[in-house]
Amino acid sequence: MTKEIDEVDEIILIQETSSLILGHEQGDREEEEFIKNVVCYIDKKINFYHITNIEKTKSKVKNNIPLIDERKKVLNYLYKKKNFIPFHKSKKKENLAPMLLFKFKNPNRAIEGIILSPTNTINFCIHMGGEMMQNYWDNHLKYFHQSEKISIDEINQKIINQD
How far is Cα 107 from Cα 73, in angstroms, rounded to an integer? Predict the structure, then answer.
């Protein structure tokens, strides 16, 4: 049994293109495992916040029918599980730095986060915790609530059906 100190209560996931909408790249076992873990947390009914660029996500699909069929199943499952998809749009033409932030049930445990910094030559990530991550959390949660929601209908219409 997991101690309360280790139980995740909330997650913020920011991605330029949404892994939850697109799924993992074929053969990418790490991304596949990542998505399974995120869905597992969603199944536990934690508070989950996801910000993505809907246009860049759409451009990745490009009428890939097997991908579209698989994603419809997964997205409908998530929609039914949570009664809403907690996706929000980034502001137009904004480059999103990928990050994953965790808030724990135990209020004495510091917020932790992983920030990816893809560059033209190398990708790297930083794992951080503490007061700085609390500031990141507060700023990104505020950003989430100020950004426009993406409905399941919009995902199906714009991304899955490529309208």
Answer: 36
DSSP label at residue 17: S
Q: How many residues would you count in the chain?
A: 163
Domain ranges in the chain are: 4-160
Copy the structure tokens of residue 5. 């100190």
Q: How far apart are CA 106 and CA 119, in angstroms?
A: 35
H or E stretch covering 46: none
Q: Whole-prediction pTM value?
A: 0.80
Kindly report, residue by residue over 29-86, the tens digit of the pLDDT: 888 898 888 888 888 878 889 998 888 887 777 656 666 667 777 777 776 665 556 6
Select from 143, 160, 162 the least CA-distant residue to 52. Answer: 143
Per the CB < 8 A criterion, the answer to whether 95 and 16 are in contact is yes
**What is the third-level CATH fold of 4-160?**
Endonuclease; Chain A (3.30.870)
Residue 102, amino acid: F
